[in-house]
Automatic annotation (TrEMBL):
The gene is pgi. One of its GO terms (molecular function) is glucose-6-phosphate isomerase activity. InterPro entries: G6P_Isomerase, G6P_Isomerase_C, Phosphoglucose_isomerase_CS, SIS_dom_sf, SIS_PGI_1, SIS_PGI_2. Pathway: Carbohydrate biosynthesis; gluconeogenesis; Carbohydrate degradation; glycolysis; D-glyceraldehyde 3-phosphate and glycerone phosphate from D-glucose: step 2/4. The keyword Transmembrane helix does not apply. Keywords: Cytoplasm, Gluconeogenesis, Glycolysis, Isomerase. This is Glucose-6-phosphate isomerase. It comes from Streptomyces fragilis. Its EC number is 5.3.1.9. Belongs to the GPI family. The keyword rRNA-binding does not apply. Pfam families: PGI. Catalyzes the reversible isomerization of glucose-6-phosphate to fructose-6-phosphate.
């Protein structure tokens, strides 16, 4: 059935059944659900690879889950999933296949795009990356003056920055500490300025990461970095080859910039930017952690890909997490979704997920070209949990908004902590468990009174609870576990996009801003009369020029 003839989501009987069920369920209480089913904790837990996923603290019954799965079946989510894995062009607005899963497919797998198996090319690039990473790590790759590389600066933005920057932080304890890594993304010159402050040009390698190699922020920063390098080395263009490599799909633009395509690591148009850090875009990460650890990460991704591809609906974790999100987004009017890691190393994880989720599912037009009549992607936000506890958790506990949240934690701290710091891990995790308990079950007025609280303070100190959370617990934060987590969220986002009937793989909304910025720039620099500027922007630009002394 093509997109035009598919019934609209909100006309489906399965959608209406969920709406009715929501009404009938009313204000279901988690306390009651747990009282009625003492084994709910383990009954509502899935195990995928190393991930224990507890979804018992959700405002759902078996009936809710069944109805949600019915909706997924009616939208043929698994049909679209299979088409994605087969390499069909499910990114309809760009007429592209969506094959990030091929980036972590084993060498003997076969995935065809336009009749050609893409897996051999994936492994050829991985080998080229590994060879290069090993040379940098061993000191075999030297700069223009013969000194070994000690600093690696990744220049990219969006998916060409967030992925490697996030994963570098997550796997920090696995990195070669004798190397320094910096990630520059912002076109604000301060970003590059600060990143280069203490670096020695002779020992610095720039990795220019850009799928298109036309992104203005990246090309501008890369150009400034080249100037910095050549000035400091007192060298000409010939020095670039030893200090610049490119990660891109656009060989023409790479060589136009002056980077030898020998030093380019390729990927393909079927890899979306926000799904790309397990491609060549992960080169900085591979240099940091080494090729073997990078491969372990890819295996973790693949494990969850296989789970998503083969697990039945009842046990399929990405399907389940996607559907739970739909339950709150579409049937409880939840506007946002918090991701709260209890790991310092995951400090950039939520920022990474923001692009993955919000750039994928921030769409108001359905695949049939008509506006949707239902809510699509939520606002995704969050920071490491303990810090959040002393900032915004108050609103989650006692505010007026329903905010479903994912709690992510690990049984073991990373290796290498002192005994004293190692012991702190239990305190961290005590917070982790206490928070989801408090959010779910709250504190009744009776319990507050029993603590001897003055009557007038009882309402203030009562917690209604009933705040839904998913708990994801793993033994430790390994490269494989990172791959598993990212793939879990990638496929969750896929499920939601499939149900909402939107193209999760384009990002036209971002394009408009890019075009307008280029158009407005001459107004700032030259005072040019740019046609089409609205009165507000015109006045602001005039003030800007005045303040800038122009
Ligand atoms: O933000 C829009 C976007 O196109 C992202 O999807 C992408 O990750 C980012 O820009 C960077 O693009 P490129 O890798 O082509 O420089």
């Amino acid at each position: 059935m093509n997109a035009e003839s598919r019934p609209r989501l909100n006309r489906l009987p399965e959608w209406n059944a969920l709406a009715k069920h929501r009404e009938a369920l009313g204000e279901v209480r988690l306390r009651e659900l747990f009282d009625a089913e003492p084994g709910r904790g383990s009954a509502y837990t899935l195990r995928v690879g190393d991930l224990h996923i507890d979804y018992s603290k959700h405002l759902v019954t078996d009936e809710t889950l069944r109805l949600l799965r019915d909706l997924a079946a009616a939208r043929d989510v698994f049909g679209l999933r299979d088409a994605m894995f087969r390499g069909e062009k499910i990114n309809i607005t760009e007429d592209r296949a969506v094959l990030h899963t091929a980036l972590r497919a084993p060498r003997d797998a076969s995935v065809e795009v336009d009749g050609a198996n893409v897996v051999p090319a994936v492994h050829t690039v991985l080998e080229k990356m590994a060879g290069f990473a090993d040379r940098v790590r061993s000191g075999g790759w030297t700069g223009h003056t013969g000194r070994r590389i000690r600093n690696v600066v990744n220049i990219g933005i969006g998916g060409s920055d967030l992925g490697p920057a996030m994963a570098y932080e997550v796997l920090r304890s696995y990195t070669d500490r004798s190397l320094t890594f910096r990630f520059v993304s912002n076109v604000d010159g301060a970003d590059l300025h600060e990143a280069l402050q203490d670096l020695d040009a002779e020992e610095t390698l720039f990795i220019v990461a850009s799928k298109t190699f036309t992104t203005i922020e990246t090309v501008t920063n890369a150009t400034s970095a080249r100037t910095w390098l050549l000035e400091r080395l007192g060298a000409g263009q010939e020095a670039v080859a030893k200090h610049f490599v490119a990660l891109s799909t656009n060989a023409g633009k790479v060589s136009e910039f002056g980077i030898d395509t020998e030093n380019m690591f390729a990927f393909w148009d079927w890899v979306g930017g926000r799904y790309s850090y397990d491609s060549a875009i992960g080169l900085s990460l591979m240099i940091a952690i080494g090729p073997d650890r990078f491969r372990e990460m890819l295996e973790g991704f693949h494990l969850v890909d296989e789970h998503f591809r083969t697990a039945p609906p009842e046990e399929n974790a990405p399907l389940l997490l996607g559907l739970l999100g739909i339950w709150y987004n579409n049937f409880h009017d939840a506007q946002s979704h918090a991701v709260l890691p209890y790991s310092h190393y995951l400090s950039k994880f939520t920022a990474y997920l923001q692009q993955l989720d919000m750039e994928s599912n921030g769409k108001y037009v359905a695949r049939d070209g008509r506006p949707v009549e239902w809510q699509t992607g939520p606002v995704v936000w969050g920071t490491p949990g303990t810090n959040g506890q002393h900032a915004y958790y108050q609103l989650i506990h006692q505010g007026t908004k329903l905010i479903p949240a994912d709690f992510i934690g690990f049984a073991r701290p990373v290796d290498g902590l002192s005994a004293e710091l190692e012991a702190q891990h239990d305190l961290l995790m005590a917070n982790f468990f206490a928070q989801t308990q408090a959010l779910a079950f709250g504190k009744t007025p009776e319990e507050v009174r029993a603590e001897g609280v003055a009557e007038e303070l009882v309402p203030h100190r009562t917690f209604l609870g009933n705040h839904p959370t998913t708990t994801i617990l793993a033994e430790s934060l390994t490269p494989s576990v990172l791959g598993q987590l990212v793939a879990l969220y990638e496929h969750k986002v896929f499920v939601q996009g499939a149900v909402w009937d939107i193209d999760s793989f384009d990002q036209w909304g971002v394009e408009l801003g890019k075009v307008l910025a280029k158009r407005v720039e001459p107004a700032l620099t030259e005072g040019a009369d740019v046609p089409g500027l609205d009165a507000s922007t015109k006045a602001l630009v005039a003030t800007y020029r005045e303040l800038r002394g122009r």
